[in-house]
Design goal:
Length: 345
Amino acid sequence: MTRYLPPVILVVLALLPLVLKDPYLLNALITGGIFTIGAISLNLLLGYTGQLSLGHIAFFGIGAYASALTTLGFDIGIVGDFRIVHEGWHPFAGFLVAILISGACGYVVGRLSFRVRGAYFVIVTICFAEVVRLVALNWVELTQGPLALTAIPQMKIGFPGLGEITLRTKAQNYYLMLAVAALAYVVVARLVSSRFGRAMRGLKENEQLAISVGVNATRTLTVAAAISAAIAGAAGSLYAHYFRIIDPDVFLFTYTVTMVIMVVSGGKGALAGPVIGGLIFGTLPVALRPYMAPEAQWIVYGAVLIAILFVMPRGIAPYLDDWFASRRRAPARSPVAQPQLEGQP
């Protein structure tokens, strides 16, 4: 049943800007949607291969910086008088570069780290994210360090016959975020339903058995990590061009935790899981902010998460699937009325 939820949610979300006039709420939806894209990418790795990456925000931040620097341009010294000078490109080119560089970094990290599993892989991803954060903080000539990259150009999109449109309004950025989120969802859906997706699920369920029937574990996991990182990089690019300023705080560990919460609460390994989790935990802080202090907001946030995981341990999407399946089976279990014989009470 949950396979029908994403199209319904997409239609509802597409209509929201027509009725939602508050720019603050629209800004919250854009921000939550960008991190939902990150959650969709993390679900590919966590939900379908069983590999937990607690450094996933690194690929988000790499995408943000790559897109910003590609668009702004830079002039840095390498060795002696040798310098690399790059003139700024079109913002959409920055978006594509962010996807390519993040995907390449995901491939390299996966190639090196998937020789280990479990807690060792988690530690490797955390260390990678911290190294990238320190590079962004200390390579001041390139990233401006703690001073941040500012005046990042807004995203521009060209349409045949209509010319080029600069996405200045929140509604325009909202629809761009929604389009990228829908594309990310379709890419993951097609991937997990393919032969490659069956290989990923086989490694998650029984790695030794999957290897015995010919699945190349390292290659499969590495490609999954690269695709997951590329989608996270796309989300980071949207973040950079929407807020137009980024600093090393974009690599904060709390952002990875937010993505993990979205995936786990919505249902890891379910396509609709990160979408549902993102809608709840992307908008819940905004809904609570006018009514309670920040400390109380975090208490309610945690209480809602605990309640969801206590009642629905596998997440919301699998719970809804089971509930609708049980409702469909209920009529079949109902006793069939037997005809009564004459004179029988």
